[in-house]
Amino acid sequence: MMQTVLIIEDEVELAEILGDYLEVEGYAVQIAFDGEKGLELFEICKPDMVLLDIMLPKLDGMAVCKKIRATSEIPILMLSAKSGEMDKVISLGIGADDYVTKPFSPLELVARVKAHLRRYHKSAPVIKEDGLTVGKLILHKESYTAKVGEEELELTTKEYEVLYFFASHLNQVFTKEQIYENVWGMNEYGDISSVAVYIKRIREKLNLYRLDYIKTVWGVGYKLSVT
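and the corresponding structure tokens:
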């Protein structure tokens, strides 16, 4: 089945060039030249990946990324004319999977698209009746249990909730604040600094099975990846 890449880019010539390169490689391409139209096309065509410019008319790329990420885990690659670290940190922090600074080689970008789609379809979590499977992990939401093969991980309730949150958002980077808000809830009594403590404990338990799944993305936060 042909995979679809949605390009949201207000530089018409660049968008069309990227579209041509991707079509030559066998991808179906949809193009939008502003953020609002990009979200409309996202809902209509249900793409497998999004190439998203940061500086867009009507609705900027950061806002578009947040809205897409709220409902989908597909790869998002941000395009920017800015070379500063801050845009990259923010982009990864709100859910983008990659960041490319203009000008760039269309061939390099196509290579990145292929790599992200290959990785996404290879490692995407599988939800079955017997649980959520991520790599060698199987998580059962109803019973709050996590297994590696037939062996059960000894997790506290909150450790399980943190691990399940990561597993449900595979390869997505989250800041400590985002993890705390999604797992604890901002109204719950606690301390954001405890996030690092829980992640350390979960890592130690996963490491008993040589599962180095939780990665630190320096300057941003954490993600769960099985690759």
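(Above: one complete record from the training split.) The domain at 126-224 is CATH 1.10.10.10 (Arc Repressor Mutant, subunit A).
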